[in-house]
Amino acid sequence: MQSQRKPAAPRKARRPQPVARAEYTAAVRFNNGRRDIFRILNADDMADARALVLAELDDVSSLVIALRN
Predict the structure, then answer these.
(1) Helix (H, G, I), strand (E, B) or coil at 64
(2) How far apart (Å, rounded) are the C-alpha atoms in residues 65 and 49?
(3) How far is residue 9's CA from residue 18's CA, in Å, rounded to a whole number?
(4) Which of 18, 23, 42, 44 could in theory staple to 68 by disulfide, Cβ–Cβ 3.0 to 4.6 A?
(5) How confident is the model over 10-59, as pLDDT tens digits?
(6) Cα–Cα–Cα angle for 59, 61, 66, rounded to 5 degrees
(7) DSSP string of 33-52?
(8) What are the tens digits of pLDDT across the range 55-68?
(9) Contact criterion met (CB below 8 Å) for 14 and 4
(10) Predicted TM-score of the model (pTM)
(11) Are 28 and 43 in contact (CB under 8 A)?
């Protein structure tokens, strides 16, 4: 005589994974010659990342932004 199988437990609904936002890296040179590197986490695109950096920092001589992998 074969044993009866248990009914399968209902599968739990998975929560959708949040969409990962792009991260950017900004290399900044200041007017006094000092330089620094920053990570930008809350930008929608590269133009937004640039605006965020320029809004936070003063005396920026040059700014390079790259998409972080």
Answers:
(1) strand
(2) 8
(3) 27
(4) 23
(5) 888 888 877 777 899 999 999 999 999 999 998 999 999 999 999 999 99
(6) 115
(7) S-EEEEEE-S-SSHHHHHHH
(8) 999 999 999 999 98
(9) no
(10) 0.68
(11) no
